[in-house]
Design brief:
Largest sheet: 7 strands, parallel
Number of strands: 7
CATH superfamily: NAD(P)-binding Rossmann-like Domain
CATH architecture: 3-Layer(aba) Sandwich
Helix content: 40-55%
Radius of gyration: 17 Å
Strand order of the largest sheet: 3-2-1-4-5-6-7
Strand content: 5-15%
Number of helices: 8
Number of domains: 1
CATH topology: Rossmann fold
CATH class: Alpha Beta
Distance between the termini: 41 Å
Bound molecules: nicotinamide-adenine-dinucleotide
Structural class: alpha/beta
Shape: globular
């Protein structure tokens, strides 16, 4: 990834922060794009990379990001479409406001990210192409009864990823698009749930037959592979990083 330009949404915290650290270690020029300015600026300063305040749900914000990437770097090699939120609302509790706010970030935000990245990558020098990695979840396959919007959004990311991937392949754009599917990974999203109900830690550990949660470093390593030229024939794929969670028969 030496000198490659990588944009990471949600890079101020958790999995995205882990990706930023790993890509920087590999020599990439990283732009962290996040709504959390304090955490984003702090993490970028620690890593020696750049931060921009960015809302993935805003088309205007993506236009600004594209201008900044063109002016500051002149190319885009990889987009980690990673920002996401939870709602903690079952279908019976779901409010339209929360439902739409979540889908705006978790689905529409990823669509806008893909569209922006492709427009930038089309203009990359030579035939460089690029890679897009969409952060989905084991929840793409196994639903959460307590979060209808999140479960819906992460299933939708699979369809979006496949459509964008085959479009890019057919257009001979040399842009690869894949989704990654973390299982329970100890980040702020899970910490907020654990603060309310510490007994959930055991349940999160038990989701995987390995008996533990994943780490942000493990998720970042998969994202790094998919962003790199080593993954040259991988597109439209769904890549699990969940310790066997979806392979385990639920009753066993
Ligand atoms: N932690 C897990 O167990 C787990 C499992 C599967 C998938 N995921 C997915 O991984 C991704 C990262 O989650 P995480 O666990 O690191 O959570 P996190 O809360 O630690 O990080 C999410 C980041 O996204 C940012 N963000 C939120 N809304 C945004 C917006 N509108 N625009 C830009 N940035 C925004 C937040 O400020 C935060 O920095 C999410 O898509 C999440 O759904 C997490």
């Amino acid at each position: 990834m030496q000198d490659k330009v990588v944009v990471i949404t949600g890079g101020a915290s958790g999995i995205g922060a882990g990706m930023a650290q790993r890509f920087c270690q590999e020599g990439a020029r990283v732009l962290i794009a996040d709504t959390n300015r304090d955490a984003g600026e702090r993490h970028a300063a620690e890593l020696g990379c750049q931060f921009m305040s960015h809302d993935v749900a805003s088309e205007q914000s993506w236009q600004t990001l594209a201008q900044q990437v063109r002016a500051g770097y002149g190319q885009l090699d990889a987009l980690m479409n990673n920002a996401g939120i939870v709602s903690n609302q079952s279908i019976e509790d779901a409010t339209l406001e929360t439902w739409q706010a979540l889908l705006d970030i978790n689905v529409t935000g990823m669509m806008l990210g893909c569209r922006t990245a492709i427009a930038l990558m089309r203009d990359n020098p030579g035939d460089m192409g690029g890679a897009i990695v969409n952060t989905a979840s084991s929840t793409s396959y196994l639903a959460l009864p307590g979060d209808a919007a999140y479960s819906t959004s992460k299933a939708a990311v699979v369809g979006l990823t496949k459509s964008v991937a085959v479009h890019c392949a057919r257009e001979k754009l040399n842009i690869r698009v894949n989704s990654i599917h973390p299982g329970a990974t100890l980040t702020n999203i899970l910490r907020s749930a654990l603060d309310d109900a510490p007994e959930l830690e055991q349940a999160f550990n038990a989701m995987s037959p390995m008996g533990r949660m994943g780490t942000v470093e493990e998720v970042a390593a998969l994202a790094l592979f998919l962003a790199s030229d080593e993954a040259g024939f991988c597109t439209g794929g769904q890549f699990p990083v969940e310790g066997g969670t979806v392979s385990l028969h639920p009753g066993m």
